[in-house]
Design a protein that fits this description.
Layout: H1 3-18, H2 40-53, H3 97-113, H4 121-137, H5 147-153, H6 155-171, H7 187-207, H8 209-212, H9 214-224, E1 232-233, E2 246-247, H10 256-262, E3 268-269, H11 272-277, E4 289-290, E5 295-300, E6 304-309, E7 312-319, E8 335-341, E9 354-369, E10 376-384, H12 392-395, H13 401-422, H14 424-455
Parallel strand pairs: 5-8
Antiparallel strand pairs: 1-2, 3-9, 4-5, 6-7, 7-10, 8-9, 9-10
Helix pairs in contact: 1-2, 3-6, 4-7, 6-7, 9-13, 13-14
């Protein structure tokens, strides 16, 4: 008797004594599957390992016999999605791409911010077991979980983050180091980590080199059909003044009513050129957008912002007279759409990219010139309009992990283009400047949040 079998039998016996039941273990005879291969050894080893890791866990199955929180539904062949995991034509579990993407974002967000799996723990366990069973059942054939679905829903990033979190907690090192972490990982998370490791191995064996090139394909898709569609890189543009080196065809901005209907607070872009492409603003520069009846949008990309009270903010920037947004002088008391960029020094600014934060009322406008330096200083008081679709707390969660993945691809693309068109020296300069800015922003944000914690 092997060591795994002995441990499994011990766990089974211990559980039986606790429940005052004595149920004999019966082993199923070996049998051949439809493709002629003996599956008994694989099934037996998997069952033993499951008992070792979790003798009391009821594993999820596709036959509908488990108590999974995910519902089953019967659909017509026309309505059946190719991105749904299924094992037969009579029943299927709803695992569409959007559901999987939301699961991935939720778990990764909780691992990074809260050091736990979060509210989607049971869904994560069900998904991992479902995906493993699907891969093993369809061994040698195409599975319903395609590489395109894995790429879209960031499932490769999900299993990697689960594994990294497990390893970092075990070693007490890495980006998830925290004194609040428990001494021992929960048993179910240990099982999830084991399943994640198995799933990565199965995906690598199934998709081979395509799995290892998934990030490269994401970057290519970003330009062709993703967030950078219709936006081009131009190394001749000034990096500082133009807030980037990307440009697009300038179209007429959408009207006030169209903007309020088309864009919800929380809409996110990689850069301001993408917002120009979509009609939110009319210029890739940090300037107010003029509509038919006045100013419609204002991007806040530089300067700094202070929270005066709930939903009221003071925006301050310094520069030349042309940087003072004098067109806003006649807009006091009116509502405009506010966009915030990641370079803005504000605790409510996004960590990356540009985000639409909703409608704000301009409560006060003013600027003055320093008599000694000649520098102008703008002060703008903004109040967020109440009862909008997403609150500021909701906006603070954007960009989400999948959007940050796109941001990393975007930075990689920009770096590659700078290196190709301007050389290694320009690339190194760009890389160092980007890293210094990032460290400076993080230090500033950390200090402000620490200061704000004492004011509560």
């Amino acid at each position: 008797m092997s060591m795994l079998e002995r441990i499994a039998r011990y766990n089974h016996g211990t559980r039986s004594r606790r429940e005052t039941l004595k149920l004999p273990m019966k082993h199923k005879p070996a049998r051949l599957s439809d493709d002629g291969q003996d599956r008994s050894l694989f099934s037996r080893q998997r069952d033993i390992m499951n008992q070792v890791l979790s003798p009391t866990i009821r594993h999820f199955g596709f036959d509908g016999t488990s108590g999974s929180p995910f519902h089953r539904r019967s659909v017509s062949p026309k309505a059946r999605s190719t991105d749904t995991l299924t094992l037969n034509t009579n029943s299927e579990l709803k695992w569409d791409r959007e559901t999987l993407l939301e699961l991935s974002d939720s778990v990764r967000e909780s691992l990074h911010n809260d050091k736990t799996v979060g509210p989607s723990a049971s869904q994560l366990s069900d998904f991992l077991e479902s995906a493993i069973r699907s891969e093993e059942h369809q061994r040698g054939r195409s599975t319903m979980l395609t590489l395109e679905t894995i790429e879209y829903a960031r499932l490769d990033k999900l299993v990697e983050d689960v594994l990294h979190f497990s390893e970092n907690v075990s070693l007490r090192v890495g980006p998830y180091l925290s004194p609040s972490l428990p001494d021992d990982l929960p048993l179910q998370f240990r099982v999830d980590a084991s399943h994640a490791k198995s799933l990565v191995r199965l995906w690598r064996r199934h998709f081979r080199e395509n799995y290892f090139m998934i990030d490269r394909h994401r970057r290519e898709s970003l330009l062709k059909s993703g967030r950078l569609k219709g936006v081009s890189f131009d190394s001749s543009l000034d990096y500082v003044f133009g807030m980037g080196r990307w440009h697009t065809k300038v179209n007429d901005p959408i009207s006030e009513l169209e903007g309020n209907l088309e864009f919800d607070p929380g809409h996110w872009w990689l850069n301001l050129a993408c917002a120009v492409r979509d009609g939110m603003v009319d210029s890739p520069f940090e300037a107010p957008t003029k509509g038919q009846y006045g100013i419609t949008a204002l991007p806040l990309l530089t300067g700094h912002e202070e929270v005066m009270r709930a939903n009221t903010y003071k925006y301050v920037r310094e520069g030349r007279l042309t940087d003072m947004h004098t067109a806003l002088l006649t807009q006091v008391g009116r509502q405009i759409r506010i966009l915030r960029g990641y370079r803005l020094r504000s605790i409510v600014a996004p960590r990356a990219g540009v985000r639409y934060d909703g409608l704000f009322t301009i409560k006060q406008y003013g600027f003055k010139q320093d008599s000694e330096t000649g520098v102008y200083r703008l002060e703008l008081t903004l109040e967020r309009v109440a009862d909008q679709k997403n609150s500021q707390e909701d906006l603070d969660k954007i960009p989400r992990p999948s959007q940050l993945d796109d941001w990393e691809s975007y930075e990689k693309l920009e770096g590659d283009k700078i290196k190709k068109e301007e050389g290694d020296a320009s690339y190194l300069e760009w890389k160092l400047r980007s890293q210094e800015e990032k460290i400076d922003r993080e230090d500033w944000r950390r200090a402000r949040l620490f200061k704000a914690s004492f004011a509560r």
